Structure formats: structure tokens, C-alpha cells
Amino acid sequence: MIGQESTYWHVKVHVLMLYWALRNVKLKEIFGQVLRIVGAATKTVFGFVPQGNTGGANVSPFKVMPFKPEHQLIIDTAKADG
Quick one: CA torsion of 27, 12, 61, 76, rounded to 10 degrees? Predict the structure, then answer.
């Protein structure tokens, strides 16, 4: 969620999720993460990411999801310090 504003971190998180899916032989997740890696690599720089989306294949890659208040506080603090 925090990494969604950085192409590098956004792609890296999806690559890590892909590694998990490969190790656990989760075919739906493997396919979903490959699509999300392409999307993160090509869309993040333009801000075309659904804020708060957890990034798993069980959620639409277009669905905006609310942040938990404690996560929003971390994000706000990180942005203020950055």
C-alpha cells in the first residue's frame, strides 16, 4: 500500500508475491501477479493504481480499498517526513 507510489517498490512487492505463489503452487495467484507486475511497471509512474488495494489475485486489480486508520497514519507520517 505504501509502495504503490513508487514504481520500484510496487513492482518489487508483486515480484515477492509471485515468488510466494510459485513456491506454494498457486496458479491463480501466479497468473494474477504476472499481470500485476506488468501493470505496476507500466502504470505506477502515471498514478494509475487503486489506492489501498492489497494486490492479491483474490481482489480486482482495479478495486480501490480503504486504508485502516493506523496504516493511514503511517502513510501520512512517511509523506510528511519525505
Answer: 140
Q: Range of 29's domain?
A: 2-81
Q: What is the dihedral of CA 4, 36, 67, 70, to 10 degrees?
A: -60
pLDDT tens digits, one per residue of 11-49 = 999 999 999 999 999 999 999 999 999 999 999 999 898
Residue 46 and residue 40 in contact, taking contact as beta carbons nearer than 8 Å: no
Residue 2's pLDDT is what?
Answer: 62
Cell of 78: 512517511
Domain count, the chain: 1
